[in-house]
Design a protein that fits this description.
Blueprint lengths: L1 E10 L4 E10 L2 E7 H4 L5 E11 L1 E6 L9 H10 L2 H17 L2 E6 L6 H10 L7 E4 L4 E2 L20 E2 L2 H15 L4 E4 L1 E3 L8 E3 L3 H13 L4 E7 H9 L4 E7 L2 H10 L2 E3 L2 H9 L2 H4 L6 H20 L19 H10 L4 H16 L14 E4 L16 E5 L2 E5 L2 E2 L10
Parallel strand pairs: 1-4, 5-6, 6-7, 8-9, 10-13, 13-14, 14-15
Antiparallel strand pairs: 1-2, 2-3, 4-16, 11-12, 16-17, 17-18, 18-19
Helix pairs in contact: 3-4, 5-6, 7-8, 9-11, 12-13
This protein binds zinc ion (ZN).
Length: about 425
């Protein structure tokens, strides 16, 4: 089946083509250009839309979690549900994300193999959903960021992956790989709430980081690291991590190193803002932690430095933690724009850069790429909040419409009204 999508503007992942058109053949894009140049290809069904852009990609989510604020509530949620139920709820959140134009996402740790299995089910065509790259469990040192203490009677064996020593992390990587992980998540450097001025603390040793990266790379997987900042972040980058998450405090030497190595940054700006938006009682807090205030200031400084240095910045929300799925992604994009990026650059982070982080042939409207696309009834480059309004979207994945107006569709029912 051939489709010609004619748009008042086509955003191809980097630039805008006014009066543009995209020709889709099968699951791929065959041609992109000005409508006048593409003409009327034979046998192509014509669709019209104000704006066409690549499918959105959220580079940092936790599908297994709802986004209920507060650590205790989140832990209770993780402990109270059998894994099949976790997977079913994750599937529902994934479908909702797809309806909001998110055609791919990266899951940054879930109990057991719940989201790995979900990713496989979508891949095999058993379920409608976005393309999912899942890490399985996040590797962490014993007692570390993703292995917080729990009462003795609570066993979360399969939900956690504590590893120690280089061999331990190597085994951790192999264990998640055996399960079908698409990439590896480590927790190398964490927040330290008790020492103002030094808000970070290393958890993994340099040889543990290097071993995890070496093993993952040998298995063609990238490594993403939960980080906070300072020298332990620099050590994370120096020892081979491909993508750093959060990274509120980035030293100048680390910026240089990231630029030289091509390390990706996913700054997750919104999740920090949520601390200031969500009522304190809901978060189980009595006051805003000084760490959150400090991180709030530091993240803009780090983002500005990253932008100047040409570091490839992706957009990721941390949805499932402090915020629900699907509806909040546009705000992360808008925060990048607040941080000095143009709307088009912020959208590049949300599409082209994120596709490179996930290692998928989407994120750009270019010949040969997967035809994952969003038609928007309006101009999201002028108003990024339109990307949060599923009722004004038609979503395509792999050359076919999958959602429209906030609901899933399996076939193209009618031409979009212009
Ligand atoms: Zn996260």
């Amino acid at each position: 089946m051939r489709h010609l999508i004619v748009a008042e503007q086509v955003f191809d992942g980097e630039r805008v083509i006014e009066g543009g058109a995209v020709l889709v053949e099968g699951d791929r894009i065959a041609a992109v250009g000005r409508q006048a140049d593409l003409g009327q290809p034979e046998g192509a069904r014509v669709h019209r839309t104000p704006t066409l852009l690549p499918g959105l990609i959220d580079a940092h989510v936790h599908l297994a979690f709802s986004g209920v604020p507060g650590r205790e509530a989140m832990l209770a949620e993780a402990m109270d549900q059998p894994y099949p139920e976790v997977a079913l709820r994750a599937a529902e959140r994934a479908r909702d994300s797809l309806c909001h134009g998110i055609t791919a996402l990266r899951d940054m740790a879930a109990p057991g193999g719940a989201v790995i299995d979900l990713a496989r089910a979508v891949d095999q065509g058993d379920l409608v959903g976005p393309r999912i790259l899942a890490c399985g469990r996040g590797l962490t040192v014993t007692g570390g960021h993703m292995d917080a203490p729990l009462p003795d009677h609570v066993s979360m064996e399969d939900a956690r992956a504590p590893c120690d020593g280089a061999d331990g992390f190597r085994k951790g990587v192999r264990t998640e790989a055996r399960r079908g992980a698409g990439f590896i998540k480590i927790n190398s450097c964490v927040s330290l709430h008790t020492r103002p001025g030094t808000w970070w603390r290393p958890e993994m040793t340099p040889d543990e980081i290097a071993a995890a990266c070496d093993e993952a790379h040998a298995q063609d997987m990238i490594v993403a690291a939960h980080t906070s900042g300072g020298p332990p972040l620099t050590a994370t980058v120096a020892n081979g991590v491909d993508c750093v998450e959060h990274a509120h405090w980035i030293d100048d030497d680390c910026i240089e190193l990231m630029a030289a190595r091509g390390t990706f940054l996913v700054p997750t700006l919104l999740v920090n803002e949520r601390t200031f938006e969500v009522p304190l009682a809901e978060q189980g807090l009595t006051h805003i932690p000084p760490w959150s205030e400090a991180a709030r200031q530091a993240k803009w400084v780090s983002l500005a430095k990253a932008r100047l240095a040409g570091i490839r910045v992706g957009a990721g929300t941390d949805a499932g933690f402090m915020m629900p799925h699907a509806t909040m992604f546009w705000r992360e994009v808008a925060l990048l724009a607040e941080g000095g990026y143009t709307a088009a650059e912020a959208l590049t982070a949300a599409t082209a850069v994120n596709a490179d982080i996930l290692g998928i042939e989407a994120g750009r409207l270019a010949p040969g790429r997967l035809a994952d696309m969003v038609m928007v009834d309006g101009d999201p480059l002028a108003d990024l909040s339109l990307l949060g309004d599923a009722t004004r979207m038609a979503v395509w994945k792999g050359g076919a419409e999958v959602a429209r107006g906030g609901a899933l569709t399996t076939v193209w029912p009618q031409e979009m009204a212009t």
